[in-house]
Amino acid sequence: MSVPSANPADLDRQDPASEVSARAEAFRNWGRWGDDDVLGTLNFIDESKRLEAAALVRSGRVISLAQAFDTNGPQKGWRRRTNPVHTMTDTGTDAERGNQGFPHGIGGADDVIAMPLQCSTQWDGLGHIFDRGMAWNGRRAGDVVTSDGDLVTGIEHAASVIVSRGVLLDVGRHLRPETCELDDGHPITVADLEATAAAHGVTIGRGDIVLVRTGQYARTRRDGWNDYAGGPAPGLSLTTAGWLHSTEIAAIATDTWGFEVRPNEFDVPAFQPLHQVVIPNIGLTIGEMWNLDELAEACAQRDSWDFLLSAAPLPITGAVGSPINPVAIL
């Protein structure tokens, strides 16, 4: 079987089904870690990889890579995705008025939040996307995710796993040094990723977590959310699927809503074809809506683009995604 082209010009823009199918079959990791596997490419992270990552810590500086979780977020209700609703159930006013029922003058505040798990900075779990009714590792989608949640590959399995060497590829800075921002609809190619890595002086390999900065989030902070949630965006081309497979990275995250380029690269209806290849077939964990701007500035200032990255999901039993507060430790 021939390996699908990594050149976007070679895509048949009239036939997304065939383009997806070719890459799914060429890069499929089913059975690679056994029939019972629940982690996919996160298996590439081991103790030695974490020791390698820990050795990158020089200053002890910690940078949060999370966007805010509040009602001013980017969501517009697509498929019932809304912004977080934060409600106080006990307040300082209650304490002042002494109506909380506590003894000897003690008072307190308490709160609750309601939100979709993928409304801000988050991981897509392995149960999030299916390919022709099949889930990660060749399981039937209906056997994996039911109304009770993800019964097999729930995000809780990754709770103690995602600590590794992080590598930032600031593609926006490399390709557009005048603005550090890619245009919406820009398809990031394998050549773009490799050129950026070379410019940063980093290599990428087994067990790494790659962070791709496009600059779109910086644009939203300046100009407003507009169509950040679901609209046009720079992102990875479908043709990067082979690179995502061959590099043996553990996970990848971007500063955009959907990870891959939008609109997708076809002249007929298509929706997130790269998701369809990499999650259920490669077993790759994907992060979206990360805030990579402060990290990019720090990396540029010190001319070093790798670091210790900790990005544990909440162990929400049976969830197919999780909000996170990833941190880079420099």
CATH topology-level name of the largest domain: Glucose Oxidase, domain 1
**What is the strand content?**
15-25%
Taken from the alpha-carbon principal axes, the silhouette is globular
Unreliable sequence segments: none
Pfam families: Cyclase (PF04199)
Protein name: Cyclase
GO molecular function, one term: arylformamidase activity
Organism: Microbacterium aerolatum
Helix/strand layout:
Elements: H1 16-27, H2 47-54, E1 62-64, E2 85-90, H3 92-97, E3 110-114, E4 122-124, E5 134-135, E6 139-140, H4 141-144, E7 145-146, E8 149-150, E9 163-170, H5 171-175, E10 187-188, H6 190-200, E11 209-213, H7 216-223, E12 235-236, H8 241-246, E13 251-254, H9 273-282, E14 285-288, H10 293-302, E15 306-310, E16 321-323, E17 327-329
Parallel strand pairs: 9-11, 10-12, 11-13, 13-14
Antiparallel strand pairs: 1-17, 2-3, 4-14, 4-16, 5-6, 7-8, 9-15, 15-17
Helix pairs in contact: 1-9
